[in-house]
UniProtKB/TrEMBL annotation:
It comes from the Bacteria. One of its GO terms (molecular function) is enoyl-CoA hydratase activity. PANTHER family: ENOYL-COA HYDRATASE, MITOCHONDRIAL (PTHR11941:SF54), ENOYL-COA HYDRATASE-RELATED (PTHR11941). Belongs to the enoyl-CoA hydratase/isomerase family. The keyword Amino-acid biosynthesis does not apply. The keyword Lyase applies. Keywords: Lyase. This is Enoyl-CoA hydratase/isomerase family protein. InterPro entries: ClpP/crotonase-like_dom_sf, Enoyl-CoA_hyd/isom_CS, Enoyl-CoA_hydra/iso, Enoyl-CoA_hydra_C. GO terms for biological process: fatty acid beta-oxidation. It catalyses: a 4-saturated-(3S)-3-hydroxyacyl-CoA = a (3E)-enoyl-CoA + H2O; a (3S)-3-hydroxyacyl-CoA = a (2E)-enoyl-CoA + H2O. The lineage of its organism: Bacteria, Bacillati, Actinomycetota, Actinomycetes, Propionibacteriales.
Length: 273
C-alpha cells in the first residue's frame, strides 16, 4: 500500500486557523483569533478555503470537527470588514459577499461527516457555519443567534436556507425577526444542537464522539451523509436511492468485516473497501 493511502498529505500554511489531528481519521479545525472572538477575517477565510481543499484531498479523513479557540466559537463576519466600504455599490458589495459565503460554506462539499463543536458564542455567519456542518454540539453556556436585522443587515451565508432546514420555519422566524440569542439548553430544545456538554469536558467529549464516527464504515458513512444532505423529494425517491446505495455497501469488504466483528463480539476494523 502506498504512503499516500495511509498518511494524510502535508497541511497548508494557515493564518488565524489551526489544523490538528487528534486521532486517526479525525481532523480538528480551530478558528484561532480569540482576541477578536474568532471573527471571520480575510486571512482566516483564505486559510479556511485552503484547509477545506486540503481535507477534501485527504483519503485518510473520516470526520471533521470545527471549533473556536478561547471563549467563542465565532462572532461571525468581521464588522470592520463589513463596514469598510460605505460608498460601494450594490454590485460591488455583492461581488465581495458571494465569495465570502461560498468560502465558508465549502465545508458542505466534504464527503465525510462534519461536527461543529460550539464552545461559545456562535453569532450571525458564525452560527451559519455551525449550521453548515452535519452535527452540532454545544458547551453549556454557549449562546447562539442570527441578529442580522439588529445590525441593519439582511441575513447572509445561506442562513435563510440553513436555519429553517434545521429548526423549521416557525423557530427560524422567531430567531431572525427578533434577533434574540438563545443559550445552549434552548438551542437543544429547538433542535439547533443535538447535545449539550459541560464546558470542562466539552472538546474531549466531542472528540470522543468523532473517534466513534471515524470508526464507522467509510463508504456507508459517506453515502448516508449524501442521502441526508439532499432530502428526498418523496418516499419513492428515497427507496430508489437506497436501492442503489445499499447494494454498493453490500458489495464491500467492510460489510463482511462488520458482520464478522459482530459475530466475534469485537470492534470492526473498516478499511473503506
Amino acid at each position: 500500500m502506498s504512503a499516500s493511502a495511509t498518511n494524510p498529505p502535508p497541511p497548508p500554511e494557515l493564518s488565524h486557523l489551526r489544523l490538528e489531528r487528534p486521532a486517526a481519521g479525525v481532523a480538528l479545525l480551530v478558528l484561532d483569533q480569540p482576541d477578536k472572538r474568532n471573527a471571520m477575517s480575510e486571512e482566516m477565510t483564505a486559510s479556511w478555503v485552503a484547509a477545506i481543499d486540503h481535507l477534501a484531498a485527504d483519503p485518510t479523513l473520516r470526520v471533521l470537527v470545527v471549533t473556536g479557540e478561547g471563549r467563542a466559537f465565532t462572532s461571525g463576519g468581521d464588522l470592520s470588514w463589513l463596514a469598510s466600504e460605505p460608498d460601494a455599490s450594490v454590485d460591488e458589495l455583492r461581488a465581495r459577499m458571494l465569495p465570502f459565503y461560498r468560502a465558508w460554506l465549502s465545508v458542505r462539499r466534504l464527503e465525510v461527516p462534519t461536527i461543529a463543536a460550539v464552545n461559545g458564542p456562535a453569532i450571525g455567519a458564525g452560527l451559519c457555519l455551525a449550521l453548515a456542518c452535519d452535527i452540532r454540539y454545544a458547551a453549556r453556556g454557549a449562546r447562539m443567534g442570527v441578529p442580522f436585522t439588529s445590525l441593519g443587515i439582511h441575513p447572509g451565508m445561506a442562513g435563510t436556507y440553513l436555519l429553517p432546514e434545521v429548526v423549521g420555519p416557525a423557530a427560524s422566524r422567531d430567531l431572525f425577526l427578533t434577533g434574540r440569542l438563545v443559550d445552549a439548553d434552548e438551542a437543544l430544545a429547538l433542535g439547533l444542537v443535538s447535545r449539550v456538554l459541560e464546558p470542562e469536558d466539552f472538546l474531549a467529549g466531542v472528540l470522543h464522539t468523532a473517534t466513534q464516527v471515524a470508526a464507522t464504515a467509510p463508504i456507508a458513512s459517506r453515502l448516508t451523509k449524501v442521502a441526508l444532505q439532499r432530502p428526498h423529494a418523496s418516499l419513492e425517491a428515497a427507496l430508489e436511492w437506497e436501492a442503489l446505495a445499499q447494494p454498493v455497501t453490500l458489495a464491500t469488504a467492510d460489510l463482511q468485516e462488520g458482520i464478522a466483528a459482530a459475530q466475534q463480539k469485537r470492534s470492526p476494523l473498516f478499511t473503506g473497501r
